[in-house]
Amino acid sequence: xxxxxxxxxxxxxxxxxxxxxxxxxxxxxxxxxxxxxxxxxxxxxxxxxxxxxxxxxxxxxxxxxxxxxxxxxxxxxxxxxxxxxxxxxxxxxxxxxxxxxxxxxxxxxxxxxxxxxxxxxxxxxxxxxxxxxxxxxxxxxxxxxxxxxxxxxxxxxxxxxxxxxxxxxxxxxxxxxxxxxxxxxxxxxxxxxxxxxxxxxxxxxxxxxxxxxxxxxxxxxxxxxxxxxxxxxxxxxxxxxxxxxxxxxxxxxxxxxxxxxxxxxxxxxxxxxxxxxxxxxxxxxxxxxxxxxxxxx
Length: 297
Hints:
The chain is of the alpha/beta class. 46% of the residues lie in helices and 21% in strands. It has helices at residues 5-17, 20-27, 31-45, 61-87, 101-106, 108-118, 131-139, 185-188, 201-213, 226-234, 244-250, 264-267, 283-293; strands at 50-53, 56-59, 93-99, 122-128, 145-148, 157-164, 167-171, 193-196, 219-223, 240-243, 257-260, 270-276. The strands form four sheets. A five-stranded mixed sheet has the order 4-3-5-12-6, sandwiched between helices. Strands 10-7-11 form a three-stranded antiparallel sheet. Strand 8, helix 9 (201-213) and strand 9 form a beta-alpha-beta unit. Helix 1 crosses helix 3 (31-45) and helix 6 packs across helix 13 (283-293). The chain is globular. The N and C termini lie far apart (49 Å).
C-alpha cells in the first residue's frame, strides 16, 4: 500500500470544501487530476471514502475515520518539517496564521509585507475565521498564531496587544443620524440594522448589549462580509456597526458617513495576537509574533 502525503492533503481539502471543484481551486490543481488522486487513494486503502453527488461530496463511515487520521498525519508531517527547518539555523518553513476579518482587512497586508521582506523563506498559510474559531484553532494547535477580538485569554495561550480597532456607525449621508459627532448604542438601535454574520465577536457583542439594555435589534438583512455590509448600507437597507478598519476599507467614499460609537466596548475595541503557550517556539513563528506585536513594525 502506497499513500503519499499530497493525496492526503488533497483529501483533507475535499472534505473541508465539500466539493472536488472547490478543493481543486483551493489546491491549484485541475478537478480531473484531483479526482484521480482521490480515486487512487480509495484504491490504495481498498474502500470508498466519499459519496459523490452533483451537489458535492460526503464522507462515508470509513471516510470519517480516514479524515481524522489524515488530519493527524498531515499535522505531524508539517510539524516535523518545520522543526527540522528551524534546527537548520535558517528562519524558514510554514507558519499557520488564523485571523478574523477586521485584522485581515485593516492591518495584516502591511505587516505581512514587512514580514516577507525580512523573512523571504517563510510561507504564511493564512486562514480567515471568526474570533472564537481563531482561539479554538490556537488551543487545538491547528494554528501557530491567531489574531482575534477576544478579550479573554484561555489557559494554554499567550496573548499580546495587536491593534486598536474601535467601532464606527456607517450610514448614508441623508440618514437622520448623519450629523451626529458620536452615537450611543441606544440611539443606533432605534433604526434598522445591516448585521454581520451570526456567531462572530461583533455579532455576539451587539446581542449581549442589546439584551442588557432590554432593547430589540431590528435587523433588516444579515451578510457575511464587511464589504457586503457596507454595500447594503450604501443601498439604504439600514445602518451598520463596523470596525474602523472595515469602515476605512469599504465605507470611505462620499456615499457614507462614519460616526464613532460612543460606548466603552466600542471605542475600546482591540485586536490581540494569540499563540499556543510553549517553552520554545519555532523561529519562524516567533519572528511573526515579533513583527505583529511591534508597533513600529
